Amino acid sequence: MWHNIYVDEKGGFAILRSIEEIYSMVEGIGINVTSPELIVKGVSIDSRTLIEGDLFVPIVRIDDGHNYVKQAFENGAVVSLWQADHVPPPEGLPLIIVEDTLKALHELAQSYRGQLNCKVIGVTGSNGKTTVKDLISSLLSASYKVHKTIGNLNGEYGLPLTLLAVEEDTDIIVLEMGMSNAGEMKILSEIAKPDIGIITMIGVSHLASLGSREGIASAKLEILEGLNPCGVFIINGDEPLLNKPLSEMRLPETLKVIRFGESPGNDYYPLEINLNESSLSFTMNKYQAEFSVPMLGRHNVLNVLAAMAVADCFQIKQPDIQSGLEKLVMTGMRMERIVTPRGFMIINDAWNASPVSMKAAIETLSNLEGFNRRILILGDMLELGDKEIEFHAKIAKCIDMSKIQTVFTIGNLSKIISDTLHRTRTTGEVKHFTSKAELTAACKPLLNHNDVVLIKGSRGLKLEEICDSLNK
Question: Which domain holds residue 16?
Answer without folding.
Answer: 5-100
